[in-house]
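One chain is below:
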Amino acid sequence: MADAVLRGAESEAGVQSRLVRASEATAKDVLEADGYVFVTPENLAAMSGIMKDFFDRTYYAALDRVAGRPYATLVCAGSDGRSAVRQIERICTGWRLKEIREPIIICTHAQTPEAILAPKTIGKEDLYQCEETGTAIAAGLALGVF
């Protein structure tokens, strides 16, 4: 999903895009970016622990320094995804980011331990939505809309 977002963002000329894993992202990455797409699986009705760790490590360093920047959220969930979206929305509200589109929740319907632990295959239509999200945020930044 994140790779699809990056493909979409890179399709927009004049916009530099990077994919930074939550485990590697720093406050400097947050401060240097003009916009964000947060992509996470939902684990046990929450954003992933690595994503939570990212926000824990960067939240206060970016507080009052990123207001107004655009963001979007993509969640891969086994059944619901809304809890992870709510968590990210609350953090982005604190940062005063501007949501550029409704969150996208891609449901894999993984309900058994085996299905939950197995690698997921995201369908073409869902990947297209992810790619469109990258294109939208990059185009908006290129045009100065955000």
